[in-house]
Automatic annotation (TrEMBL), chains A, B, C, D:
Protein name per its UniProtKB record: ATP-dependent 6-phosphofructokinase
Keyword ATP-binding: yes
Highest taxon above the source species: Bacteria
Family listed: Belongs to the phosphofructokinase type A (PFKA) family. Mixed-substrate PFK group III subfamily.
A GO-annotated cellular component: 6-phosphofructokinase complex
InterPro entries cross-referenced by the UniProt entry: ATP_PFK (IPR022953), ATP_PFK_prok-type (IPR012003), Phosphofructokinase_CS (IPR015912), Phosphofructokinase_dom (IPR000023), Phosphofructokinase_III (IPR012829), PKF_sf (IPR035966)
UniProt organism field: Kytococcus aerolatus
Coiled coil: none
Annotated compartments: Cytoplasm
Site (Important for substrate specificity): 108
Binding site for substrate: 129-131, 166, 173-175, 225, 268, 274-277
Amino acid sequence: MRSMRIGLLTAGGDCPGLNAVIRGVVLKGTRLHDHEFMGVRGGWRGLVEDDIELLTRHQIRGLSKQGGTILGTSRVGPYGEGNGGAARVKETMARHGLDALVAIGGDGTLTVARMLHEEGVPVVGVPKTIDNDLAATDVTFGFDTAVQIATEAIDRLRTTGDSHQRCMVVEVMGRHAGWIALHAGIAGGAHAILVPEVPLRWEQVADWAQQTADRGRAPLVVVAEGFTPEGGEEVTTGGVDGFGRPLLGGIGVQAAANLQELTGIETRCTTLGHLQRGGSPSAYDRVLATRFGTAALDAVHEHDYGQMVALRGTEVVRVPLAEATMQTKAVPREQWEEAAILFG
Amino acid sequence: MRSMRIGLLTAGGDCPGLNAVIRGVVLKGTRLHDHEFMGVRGGWRGLVEDDIELLTRHQIRGLSKQGGTILGTSRVGPYGEGNGGAARVKETMARHGLDALVAIGGDGTLTVARMLHEEGVPVVGVPKTIDNDLAATDVTFGFDTAVQIATEAIDRLRTTGDSHQRCMVVEVMGRHAGWIALHAGIAGGAHAILVPEVPLRWEQVADWAQQTADRGRAPLVVVAEGFTPEGGEEVTTGGVDGFGRPLLGGIGVQAAANLQELTGIETRCTTLGHLQRGGSPSAYDRVLATRFGTAALDAVHEHDYGQMVALRGTEVVRVPLAEATMQTKAVPREQWEEAAILFG
Amino acid sequence: MRSMRIGLLTAGGDCPGLNAVIRGVVLKGTRLHDHEFMGVRGGWRGLVEDDIELLTRHQIRGLSKQGGTILGTSRVGPYGEGNGGAARVKETMARHGLDALVAIGGDGTLTVARMLHEEGVPVVGVPKTIDNDLAATDVTFGFDTAVQIATEAIDRLRTTGDSHQRCMVVEVMGRHAGWIALHAGIAGGAHAILVPEVPLRWEQVADWAQQTADRGRAPLVVVAEGFTPEGGEEVTTGGVDGFGRPLLGGIGVQAAANLQELTGIETRCTTLGHLQRGGSPSAYDRVLATRFGTAALDAVHEHDYGQMVALRGTEVVRVPLAEATMQTKAVPREQWEEAAILFG
Amino acid sequence: MRSMRIGLLTAGGDCPGLNAVIRGVVLKGTRLHDHEFMGVRGGWRGLVEDDIELLTRHQIRGLSKQGGTILGTSRVGPYGEGNGGAARVKETMARHGLDALVAIGGDGTLTVARMLHEEGVPVVGVPKTIDNDLAATDVTFGFDTAVQIATEAIDRLRTTGDSHQRCMVVEVMGRHAGWIALHAGIAGGAHAILVPEVPLRWEQVADWAQQTADRGRAPLVVVAEGFTPEGGEEVTTGGVDGFGRPLLGGIGVQAAANLQELTGIETRCTTLGHLQRGGSPSAYDRVLATRFGTAALDAVHEHDYGQMVALRGTEVVRVPLAEATMQTKAVPREQWEEAAILFG
């Protein structure tokens, strides 16, 4: 089989494990098949603006443990206004002699990959969502690292809460799905876990906090950024920041304000934010990302385009992109209820 | 449904996550069903010698992040000479009014649980093997922590190897299955991974080390304790230790001796040993162990005895103990070969 | 020498190492001298409200690695309105037969200790400030842990910044002194470090950020919470939070807003907050805290009251409380300038 | 002042912080003074064999957090047989136009630097000893990282010991001085700390272990590799390894064998070995190493040769090389005795 020239890109928010995927693709491709690789800079932007460079084996050395992505990323898409769509992508690929693409990214990226594939671009997808909310795969890389970091933060905050008899609120990532909150909350022994999938009244959360305090412990509440309280009168925070954006829509700060008002317990909020997505991936994420990378190379090598790699049980399989992007994976109510037994 | 009195025991080698299982069982049982719990001390020994105490909710506070097991463990079994078998177990259970047992342990413990169940003891099993070598479950808790620790060790050793241009050998756990070696090796970017399932000649390993050195890098070799070299003349280490045991049968030291002799590259071995099984569990293991604990309580609560909890994909299910202990899960040759593409 | 009964209290904000001090005092006191100890709950509050319990050797088991303080803390002081002053303290001490106090706390706590001593209360101080801003001692425990946590956060944030070509701002503790910012900034290789001791114009900071971006790197700026920008027109953030407090007076968010406006580089802020003061202390802090604890016990044992323990070079010495609280230790301008060579 | 060309080398065993020193020297030298730098490969070997390359600012990017040394290291010295002595060093320096050297290394390296300086080579030393046993400086970088790693290992091993009621022995670095054992032992709450400076009978150590066990706890013993037991009949381990070296002269294994024999408590040994010297330096070590680097550059810039940089209290000072290498810093007996109060 003739040697191929393959383009790699990472798009959307960064995530621990991106570099391990890149390494997996390139190592297997160069060692087993003598394929050649090019790095597309800044996600789809590199194809739109023709920002593409050779990706040598030397560049991927020691990459599995490195956070971020050496290819850079952006939220630019080929179907954006004036970005030229599939035609531009094909043009750029032709200019560099690219036979195929490996696109590593989230829901948006994979949807673009599916659309490009429908227009004839030979592309294989690798799913990336730190929130773990993609139905087509059991787990995505980056999630384990984020949960680990959030759990370590909870462990730390708990000692401060106990010393000061304060209620501690931790806001974690999870805009549409509460997986990080659920797992970090269980691992850290939280007294309440608030997820987007399960709206709750602040009064209910305050009850759990109060029960905890009544047992002589400092309440610890984990809230996903996408949680929405149910009904009741909100204690809002108001204001706009320097960018004119509404200030402290931050649900963590809202939770703290409401819990303090309802329970009278001094309450503090910590927002983990970018800490959850940077830095060296956990061993679990490095292994999963490496397996995704080598499996994506296999798909490209077999010209099995329009597919995405995915984890099912302990196996890495292929799933059609069309199917893969149809459905997000929410925390099932019964799984949250199982965790809720431990609340309060 | 009437409230039950349930005995818990942990047997065999310790493993990060044991305490999280205990906490899960007790929290769900006390909160949802008003069951009562007793801690059986030192594994089966506590039933043989009647060393059993009340296990209060207070004792399980903050336990999910704590390494080891608060119940203690031992390798004593009820079927050991003079230990009284099922009759003694039933007798001790009756004396304390125990309606059922939750037995947390490895292959040996679960086999004992199965035998006791066949003799009429109401028992539910929770699988524990840091080596992850149980076929009946996709993953066991403790494994992720061990892989993480081994990976961090590899990250550290690599910088020393590179500075001194030495070959570094790391011996990790894995007597019959090489899962820890495989995952830590992939995560750490090892240049060779030696597992019990795949015998190799030292010459082959030395080739990989030499290829790595030829590219200007310091070779890093991960070897599972149960690896056996194939054919060839071994450079053995000989001797007996202060306990009269054969000295440094340690395969890591043997690997280092052989690699140094065959390649001429200065080689050092580090044996991680107990570092892999102690200390605070990773978030992944805390979540899995907690889920195993609450699922085991459910089985007991429904009087569904003779079962073991297990992970299948993302679900926790029940598996008959009889089936569960029949088969160990080896690293499939093709999975090792997939990793081997990255060697050298 | 007759055995004494000694009260211990921890006051002010919590700090990694408090428990190690407690353990050091009690272990040396019980083992070497047969002294008895009582835990004063919630700082000075315990003396004001008579909330005091026996502190057994069993309670201090395994305490050196535990964050927070098992004695609890508060900001209540004996000289607060209606709190009874030295008279009340002596009364409570007499009621429990306390011969002396060990007061572990910051500037405020030590000032109270000095005043009480001047009124005849036998007290020895142990300095605690996570900000490391006490002139009387070279280092205080908790500082090393805070710097380590902030450094790890910087390491993580850097990969995200590089992947997205964003400027990352990290706000760390340091209300009056910039030691945490200085050390974490040096350790993390920050491109600008903003401390309370050195007011700067946003334009200067933006210049450094721009220089960094011009070299193709993502700027990383560390700002101490007490930094005040110099002159110029501020881009403020406005608003009040749910407690009616001015919102996002957070200097980190202000820095991000200003830097983004001045450079046009997308900028994000992470505020570490309580993450820096919770959790297990670093080995350095455990050793220092243990040494402070045993040295404080020696002072009490020798009835050398009105003293505080302190580190000078590698020695733990005693300093009169009167002298100890007179002066804060600011970052010297030349030390900041030394670091500033590496900016941009 | 005219720009200089300066050679850097790292010699002896690797140590966390070496790269941070290199970065500090080069960043200050290029930014403030426009000096040029060359990397001498493999310690003194690079001067003996003329293995020297330009060291660009690009190469030192992100180096403060990286373990090992990018310059490589070796134990080759210019005064070794046939290595040409000072004459060869001067020759190589002249060939590359080197105006001065910065030599980063331990006792041996600094002694060579002193001898070369006496023969007219313009050299400045930076002390490096992970064991912290240099009298001329309060602390050396690398030590803090080693203590932190050993302390984390102790934390992990303790849970295993407690679960199995075993005695755990940890062997740490420290051939001539027991600083790592002392600090990690205090930080980890060890029940006995064995250092080279204080010979003890195994019976004494066994007594401590037995006392600990009698209180229901698992004894944890830290032993420095250079500890020598006093008198009594040793339980030796015998044998030779694959290199023909006496096997398990390892004092840790000897300690375990003797303690098990004397107490009857099952005992296990873990030898940390290279884990202590590899990997990313702690924040403390990064700051100290950076300060040593910039201070060494200052000395070179001022042509103040024959000096070594050193930490005194919180200041970085210069010490004549002649004086610096005269004396090792042992653990003072009274400091060990202070720690010993906590034993048993």
